[in-house]
Amino acid sequence: MTGGLNVHDRHQVLARVEGYAPDTPGASPDDQLVLGYNYDASSVFRVVVNYQASTEDLAEGFLTGRLQMAF
pLDDT by residue (tens digit) across 5-57? Predict the structure, then answer.
């Protein structure tokens, strides 16, 4: 499930909860929380920053960033 909000012109924040429960016996579910920020630098470039962590240990997540280009 994902929710987002435009906080200002060209700025957006997002939160997503991802759940995965495999059918394999003995495997534990892997639920993730993703917090994101998008900035539309122009009509061509978007900057995306995400923090992703397990819901069981939010402090042990990782940060990713990317630059998207439309052409």
Answer: 999 999 999 999 988 766 766 556 678 999 999 999 999 999 999 999 998 88
Extended beta strands in the chain, E state:
2-8, 11-18, 32-40, 45-54, 57-69
Among 21, 1, 3, 5, residue whose Cα is nearest residue 13: 5
Report the distance separating Cα 28 and Cα 25, nearest Å.
Answer: 9
CA 49 to each of CA 14, 19, 23: distance values in angstroms, whole numbers, following the listed order = 10, 21, 32
The model carries a pTM of 0.78
